Amino acid sequence: GFCVYNDAAVAIRGLLDAGAQRVAYVDVDAHHGDGVEAVFWDDPRVLTVSVHESGRTLFPGTGFPQDCGGPGAEGTAVNVALPAGTTTAGWARAIEAVVPAVVRSFAPDVLVTQHGCDAHVLDPLTNLRVSVDGFRWAAGLLHGLAHEVTGGRWLALGGGGYAVVDVVPRAWAILVAEAAHADLDPATPLPAAWLEHAARYPHAHALPVGGEPTSLTDGETVTVRGWAAGYDPADDVDRAVRATRRAVFPHLGLDVELD
Ligand SMILES: [Zn+2]
After folding, report:
1. What is the Å distance from ligand 1's center to 116 Cα?
2. How far is the CA of 255 from the centre of ligand 1 (A)?
């Protein structure tokens, strides 16, 4: 998307060169992970999964469900294109309905994840409405998946995020804490020294001075309705999720309805 150098693709190539047989890349940045997908489009050793705001409303305009990978690598590109306005509940439901199943089925040696935090409701560039609590939930899910599937071999990367004072530092702190197995209380107050420092940059705030966040998360309770609980054809998020499952699950030996 925005990057001159594709650090994620370089890392994945490095892992393959170092002997990894299969690498899974999961990208929850609000923008389509177009660069990593393009680099490994024809490579059956690399599964790329991107959960993003639909290209109909967001740059770079790519990443649709039917884009599944090149010849010989069908099913190794997975795209969940969410409608503008998707909230934490829908975002988490989409991740839960697609990511664990495809990663388990692919059975990688290493999990590489990209935790761009621009899906946040305060982000100025995108139209998703996820909370920091949603990012915390996703980091926990992906971390658990790494322990389950890859013996804990997990490379967690940052990504986009343009609410640089009100969202990004909290999102990265939570990710680092998750990777370090440090259980931070979501209500942890932000350090006074940080708030003082941040107050010096009023124009970088997504919220008016005085309204900025003062604790680690946004205090939202994340409840995920699992796919097994049923599919609602009237729901935009459900239709987006189902389109991805229909396009890609058969290639991976997964059942569109049941897995
Ligand atoms: Zn982004």
Report:
1. 6
2. 30
CA of 158 to the centre of ligand 1 (A): 10
**200 inside domain:** yes
Within-domain flag for 259: no
List CB-based neighbours of ion ligand 1 within 5 Å: 29-31, 116, 118, 160
Return the CATH number at 15. Answer: 3.40.800.20
Domain that holds residue 212: 7-252
How many domains does one find in the chain?
Answer: 1
Residue at 258 is within a domain: no
Q: Is residue 170 part of a domain?
A: yes
User: pLDDT grade, residue 1 (50/70/90)?
Assistant: low
Write out the DSSP string of the chain: ---SS-HHHHHHHHHHHTT-S-EEEEE-SSS--HHHHHHTTT-TTEEEEEEEE-TTTSTT----TT---STT-TTSEEEEEEPTT-BHHHHHHHHHHHHHHHHHHH--SEEEEE---TTBTT-SS---BB-HHHHHHHHHHHHHHHHHHSTT-EEEE------TTTTHHHHHHHHHHHHTT----TTPBPPHHHHHHHHT-GGG-SS-TT-S--BSS---------GGG---TT-HHHHHHHHHHHHHGGGGT--TTT-
ipTM of the complex: 0.93
With a cut of 70, say whether residue 91 has pLDDT above it. yes
